[in-house]
Structure formats: C-alpha cells, structure tokens
C-alpha cells in the first residue's frame, strides 16, 4: 500500500484496502500511507485516506505528521486537503520545525498564507531557536514575510546566535524583505552575539540600498562590534566605495580604530582597496568633510532659472521676440542678434565647396562674420528651400534675464520643417513654459493651422501621466502661452481699457484652441498681441506678467536645488573649455567628473538629481542611449542645437547632401573637422536616431537626407500571371487620432531608421533587402515584400506574398505594423494611432484608390458577430481576408477587440471616455447613470467623494474590472454606452481600442512559419529578438 501511495495508483490502493489492507500500517520509518502520499504530492491517494477518518496528527519516527510531509512537497492541493481535517499546527519534528517553519522555507510561497489563516502559534522555535519569521527572512519570499507580520509574528525575536529576522534577511541578501521589516518597526540597532548590527551586515555584503534605508532611519552609524569595528571599517575592508559615501554622509566617524588599531582609511590600505583609501584620505579633515556633506543638502531657495521654449513657423517672430526680451533696445538688439547668428555659422572650407559639404573653421567659436557662408542658391530651387535667408538653424539656446520676470534659459526652435524630426529629444517636459508664436498679419486660416500644428506637436511629444483627472485632464499639464506677433494699430484699431489690442476673430479662434487642448495644457485666457520691435508695447508687458507668474508657479512645484548645483554650474564652464571641440561625455564620466573634481561624496542618486536640475535650467542635455547602457551628457546645449543639428539639418546642407543619405564616418571629418574622433559624433547621431549603420555598405544611412524619389515600378503586378494569381495581398494605413493631422510626417525618417536597424539585427540578411527613398521604403524578405510609405497623413504598409504562406504573411505584416507604431510612439508618446485596413481585393486589382476599413467598421462588425466587414466603398470582404491574409489558423488565435478587458484599456481610450462622460449631461447620460448600468451603485459614494481631482468615469471602469471581471469587456461597455444613448463615447472607444490581439496558444503554430525578416521589438529596445513565424 505504501508503494501504491508513493506512485499515486489510487485504484491499486483501493483494491488493497478492500482486501483488508491496513490503511494505518507503518513502514521502517514510521510512515503511514498518508505520510507517503503527502510527501510525494499524490493528491488522489491522500484524499482517499483522509476520507477514512484516520488520525491526521499521527507522527513518524522523525516526528513528522502528514501535514509536515505535505508542506515539504510544496503542493498546495494536498495542504488544503489536510487543513480541512483541522490538524494540529504546533507539533514539531525532530528538528523542532513546525509546519509553519517548513512552509516559510518552502519553494511555494502560497502555503504560509494558508496556514496563517488558521492562527497557528507564531512564537514557537526550532532547535536553532528560529521562529518562522527567521526562516522566511532567510528564504526570501516577500509574501510569506508580510503574511507573518500581518499575523503579529514577533519581529525582534532572536535565534541562537542573537540574530533578528532583519540581520538574517541581510545576511542572505534579501534587501526587499529587510525594507519590509524596517517599515514594520523592527529594531534596526540590535546587535547579535558578535556585536554586528544590521548596518555591519549590509556594509560588509555591499547592500547599498539597505545601508541607505538604515541611515535614512537614523541608525546608530558608529556602533562597534566585538572587534571594535564599525560599519565604515567593514565597507573599507571590502572596498564598497558607494557605501562608504553613504556612511560618511551619515557622519560616520573616520577616526575610530578597531582592536587592531586601524582606522577605516588604514583598513582600506591594508586590504589594498585603493579607491576606498583615496576617498577616505580626501575626507580625513572634519572641516572639509562637513563642507562636502553640506553641499549635498537642498537649499531653501528655488532654481535660478527655468526653460522658456519658443515654437512657431518660420517668420513668426521668435528671434525678434527673444532679442526684445533680452533688452529694451528693440530693433538695434535684433540687428545685433542677426549679426551674432550669422557669425555663429561657419564658412565652408575651400576644399569642400566643390563637394557641397559645409565645414566649420575648426572651433565652436566662430572666426568669420562672412554672410556669404549661407549658400542658399542650391537650396532655393529644391524642396529644401528655406522661407528666408536668416531662418533659425536648429535650436538656438541662450540665457536671458528678462526685466521684471527673472532668468530664463530660452530655447528657440527653428521653424524649418526638416529640423522637426529631432525636436522630440528636447520637448516633452512639463516643468517649463512653451510659447507658441503666430503672425497676426497672416490670414486667420493660416494662423489657425499653424497654431494647431504646434499644439498637436507638443501634445504628441508629452507623455501622458496617471491618474486621469476630471473630464480627462492630465495630472501634469504643460504650460502654453499663445502669442500673436507683428501686431500693429493698423491691423487692430480697437483696444481695451488697458490699451491691449482686441480682435474678436482671434479671440474666437483661440477659444476653440483652448477647448480642444485644455485637457493637456494649462493655457492662459488672455489675448496677447504684441509688436516685438517695440519693447514698451502693452502686449509685451502682458506677456512679461504672464511669464513671471508662470515662472513662480513652476519653481514652487520643483524640488529645491542641491547646494552643490551652483558649484557644478561654475565648474562646467571650465569643463566646456577642455572639451570645446566635442563637449560630450558619457554618463559614467560625468559621475566621475563630479566626484573627482567637485565633491567625492556625491552618490549616483545625487548625480541624477544634479543632471535633472541642470537640464531644467538649460545647462546641458542628457541623451538616453537605448542601444546600449552608455548614456551621454552634452555639456553645451547651444553647440549641440546650433552647430551640430542646425548645420546638419539646414537647407544649405540638405540641398547638397548625398542623394541616398549614405555617409561613412570619415565623411564627418569634412563637415566637422575640429572633432577629434568622428566615430564619437556618429554615435551621438545614432543615439538621436538620425541615422543607422548599413550592414551592407559599412556606411551610415541618414533617412532625413535622402532625396531620391521612389521609382514607379516598386509596386506593380507580377509579370507572371500564375504568380500574381497565387499571391495574397494585405495593407493598412496607420493614422494619428482625429484632430492630430500631420503628426506623423516628422516621424517617418525615424521609422526608416528603425527599419534599417531591424534589418541589421536580423541575422539571415542575405535573404532580406531593404531599399529606402524619400518618404518610402521597400522590404523584401524571401518571397514576401512590403512597401512602407507616407500617404497624406498616414503611414501606409502594403504587403504581398504566396498564398500558401498566408500565416507567414500575417506575421510579416504584424511585425511591420508593430515596428511603425513603436517607432512613432518613441517620437510621440502622446499620439494615439488608428489602424485603417486596406481592401486586399482592391490591392490585388492594383486600384489607385483602394477601399479602407476604418476602426469603427471593424469594431461594428465584431459587435454584430459578422464574418465580413464593409469598407468605405460599400463593398464587403471577409475579416480573415482583410486582417489575416485569408489564414483561418491565424484567425483562431485572435482575441477580438470587443473581447479585450476594460482593465487593459490604453490611456488614450480612458481619457476620451472621461472627457465625454465626466461632465454633467442634460439628459443625465453621464457617469452616474453609467454606474447604474454597470451595477456599481454601491461604489458611487466612494467615487463621488474624490470630487473633481480624479475622473469618475475612469474610477467606475476600474471598479467594474475589479468587481465584474468576466463582464468588463470592451464589447459589453460599448453595448451599454449605446443603451445609454452615448454613441459618441462608443465611437471614441471604437477608434482607440486595439482591433484585435494576437496570442497563439500552441508553440507548434509558430514552427510552421518562416522568419519574417523584421525584428518586432522597437529599435530603441536594448534587446532585439526576431519573431520566428
């Protein structure tokens, strides 16, 4: 019977039992069949024996009950079975372990909460004097520790060596558990029998986060152990420099000596820890040490300045306004600024004029004031023609102290459109002021379109933040001020009592803009019209008052600067001179610079805060490198914005750039000869995603430079009729959400960079070819091909391949769609995208204007449970043909959009619903009636109590997903919205939810397909895993 119990043969076990076998018989170890069945997790046999009403607390020769065996098996089902019999939980085995001790040491963390529910004794100890909390702290299961603490387990109990659960957790490197214990009020200064405290243990083992937490909780930092060693001695001995910094900031005494007579500095010398010794030697003086410490505390004052970002089309008056804000000398200042701007651009060397590549004179400081450096003749007749010769090139950065407003770092973004492709690296932060300028002398329609462009540009590049506020308001709205320039009394003869220009047409236009964007931006309701050439005009005074108010509000919300910040700012001027030709360093180099030349106690967290504050005041640019772990710090924002980007993306350079956008690293030496290592600059341009290496040629491809137009023959019917007949087609247009037109134009070069990187990361490149032209790319992978191009406001993808490879074609298309959407999200995280599928029938017929299937049609088809969907030309096609290339195997693994859970809704969908359903409705068709429809009337008081700080609609949907997860689907929500009479909300949901989710259930399905040739993960990911399809 024991063998049958061991191997789970329930029928055999039952047979023996029916033949008179003793169900309580014991083997040589004293185990009953129940012990054996539980030890080997044989649930069925254990259930059989349990039904025979045997003694569940019977013990074997090692003192184990059946429950001990069940817990050791880590099988939750067997444990639950025995707990129904109400066994004793206080019986120890031969090692003194109760079932709770064993559960705390189990690989299955779900057993402890099961036992705790039955109120077991928590204070019992094993032969090592350990409580279950000691065991759980050593094992490392957070849930087990939390369950024991919630049941009031003695938190400061000590085992045989005098160690608490905190010390044991740290000895085993379980920092997260140590944090829980500290949060629950354990004794952080307790010492074990060797005199070691938690701080000693954490310092010895290099547990930086634990040391930081303990010091933050005011641990006794100079506590000594039996060898009279402090935590600082141990950190020095083991060379944990970061921990030494933390201990010194906590004012650890560097003069204390151990029983060997050595200070921490001498301990580091003896252990040959050179870096630790160097640090301790630098802070030996208490006066110097205190000065370093004081530098790393925040001041009571605010930051000295914030950024003021100016955006607008060319000739909207940005440069003139900056100069007027800079001084009160008006037009003379403007003329000086023009001279400065001209002198800051570089004359081409004589050796390069024939090559059409502009060069500098070898230094960021210009040596020429020659206006002829702007060779616009070549650009004048091309698509790169600038609006005027003195247009702003790149991003002009300067510090301006505005009279009556304070100090600003003014960033003037050039309106020249090719430069917009890289602006996402410099906008998106809400802790600054955005000025959007338009020219009042332009027609109202032109003004409106320009304002909408820049508002959408900002909206798309600002990452939305949780939680969603009332009516869909973002929790962190960026400040935007819209300013009309070139205002004169002839244009605006009417004025108000304050002498400000008045225009009912412009006021109505701006009110429309405010209503459209108020959920995302904090916008002033005053009409600001000014003449930038007149510093004393009323509009200028109004603008300055608004700037002063906004500056005060923003500074009040920001963290106070560290005392070290001014020292770093001053030191940066010296560092810039040292790196004048290429003021870029890596993030680790920046950390070492701060530590070696300013303050050796500066930790990583301090450096992150310093860089963040330096960015806020416009002193430098931090570039996150998603290609590898080496981020970069640009020490001179003006050099970066004007000299590098302003030159590469200027009309003069683009008009003469390589037609195919291909440049070798050596080519950069002709453009920027002063930079010693051209590969370093190419790396920075890669980080900016302006280029990608071309594995075929060894050069770098700059899609923004490509001028060659795609040939007409890239998408024609196959010449062989049989091949055309056996080919399946599919396509999709990826559009920005309604109202955000033209948002994807500046992202397309970045999509092309992502495509090139994807091909590089795909190993069998011999079967895959990528050809790229201006606003068009063609990808050929084995017998499949696709064209990706701009069509109006959309990125269009067309794909075709053999009909027998329909499943593979679906993967091919999905990889391309995901790449495009991911690349677009990298540039514009606030741009919600829609998929409009293209008629495969019309694609196969090569119609010039094929029918589309918008999201509303696709979702409505799903709601009707139909198999076909109607397109824009009133023709119906099968859903499987439109989406799956006719593959029913793919269709079986699709989760339709209507079946997506409400809990999985994207933020764009939730914001749209909040915007529509939060405001009171005249007929009561708002969130309150929705609560009734969702059967959440009991939750209404709690939801309503939040007032207007949070979206009531969003809270309701969260509650619905929690209380009714099976019903909380997109399809059911849409049906309820229609019953509510809110088809507008349903349509908004249709446009923003995923039309389907592909999740194959069987790995076998993946093996039947071929490699797509496209890496599905985005180019910015640190890992690239091609999908095998």
From TrEMBL:
ANK repeat windows: 29-61, 62-94, 128-160, 161-193, 194-226, 227-259
Occurrences of domain Death (ranges): 923-993
UniProt keywords, alphabetically: ANK repeat, ATP-binding, Kinase, Nucleotide-binding, Repeat, Serine/threonine-protein kinase, Transferase
InterPro entries (UniProt xref): Ankyrin_rpt, Ankyrin_rpt-contain_sf, DEATH-like_dom_sf, Death_dom, P-loop_NTPase, ROC
A GO MF label: ATP binding
Pfam families the record matches: Ank, Ank_2, Death
Cofactor annotation: Mg(2+)
GO BP annotations, alphabetical order: signal transduction
Keyword flag Transmembrane helix: no
PANTHER family according to UniProt: DEATH-ASSOCIATED PROTEIN KINASE DAPK-1, SERINE/THREONINE-PROTEIN KINASE 17
Protein name as it appears in the record: Non-specific serine/threonine protein kinase
Organism annotation: Caenorhabditis elegans
Gene: dapk-1
